[in-house]
Amino acid sequence: MRAWLTPEALQRYWEAALKALATTGLRLIIIFAAYWLARQALVRFVDAALSRLQPRGDDRTREDRARRILTLQTLARSLIGYVLFFVLILTVLQTLGVNIMGILATAGVAGVAVGFGAQKLVRDVISGFFIVTEDQFAVGDYVTINQATGVVEEMGLRTTRIRDTQGRVWAFGNGDITFVVNHSRGPVTSTIDVPIPASQDHRAVTERLNEAGVSLAAEKPDLFEYPPRVEGIASFDAATVTIRMRISARPTVMPQAEAAARERVLDVLEEWGFHRPAT
Predict the structure, then answer these.
(1) Over 60: is that where the pLDDT of 157 sits?
(2) In this prediction, what percent of the chain has a pLDDT beyond 90?
(3) pLDDT tens string 76-133
(4) Is the entire prediction scored with pTM above 0.90?
(5) Do domains 2-117 and 136-182 have the same CATH topology?
(6) What is the pLDDT of residues 13-61, one digit of tens each?
(7) In the 8-state DSSP scheme, what is residue 141?
């Protein structure tokens, strides 16, 4: 015991400590510097790649998509940080002389167990990532997802929620979405058939309906993308001539646009002295 406390022994311990500090410490400094540089480089690469996904659409849609891009950036940064930190810990332990094979074996077994138990979760997250990056739909879009049609209320990397016209909320795991029809990437159209007596001048009625469509679109610009306009004669027989009007509106307001157009058509028909509701 006393031999360990002699000046010569303490001197040897001190020299060994300095030598270990000089070698191991330098390695640790290099490892931490490499970790910091790798993290900065990967984060900048991810930010540069996601910055190319410029938001499009109106102000509301641009804001929603910008928020999703920010979410992707945060997710990617977190993922990069966790992976690099795990590699850093293993490298530091190996530099300090710790046997990391047991740690890797335990982590491998645990990873396999978690992977089998979370296959659905991983599939949902990966599918959600591609839905966001490919811009298949956005919050507020009117879509058909699988068997449900409605407005997208919430969109995450794991689940998507839409509310249909009856007020029901449908929640889908992103991995369960088999097909998507986005109705909001442009106006949709609908037709209204207006039957009039064959004895009436259908050309004069057509002209009056077109004038009514222009005035209706000017009165309610929030409903119509373009003024309702007569396409032509849809059918005719000895008693009636059916005139077809086409209206264009956003899918979320199409029922209101159809109702407003039918009401205006009825007003025009009443001007001509007969009461024939549009069908």
Answers:
(1) yes
(2) 3
(3) 777 787 788 888 887 877 777 666 666 666 666 556 555 555 677 778 878 887 887 7
(4) no
(5) no
(6) 656 655 666 677 777 788 888 888 888 888 888 777 777 765 555 555 5
(7) -
Q: How does DSSP classify residue 238?
A: S
Pick the CATH number of 136-182 from 3.20.20.70, 3.40.50.300, 2.60.120.380, 2.30.30.60: 2.30.30.60
The position carrying tokens 């298949």 is 136
Task: Say yes or no: domain 188-271 is CATH 3.40.50.150.
Answer: no
Overall fold of domain 2-117: Helix Hairpins (1.10.287)
> Could you tell me the two tokens for 80?
């990069």
Q: What are the structural domain ranges in the chain?
A: 2-117, 136-182, 188-271
pLDDT score at 63: 63
d(CA 138, CA 68): 9
* Alpha helical stretches, state H, the chain: 7-50, 59-95, 101-117, 119-134, 202-219, 254-271
Strand order in the sheet with 142-145: 169-173, 159-164, 148-155, 142-145, 180-182
Cα gap 47→271, rounded to integer Å: 63
d(CA 90, CA 98): 9
**Residues 6+ away with beta carbon under 8 Å from 44:** none
Per-position DSSP letters for 10-72, written without gaps between them? HHHHHHHHHHHHHHHHHHHHHHHHHHHHHHHHHHHHHHHHHTTS---SSHHHHHHHHHHHHHH
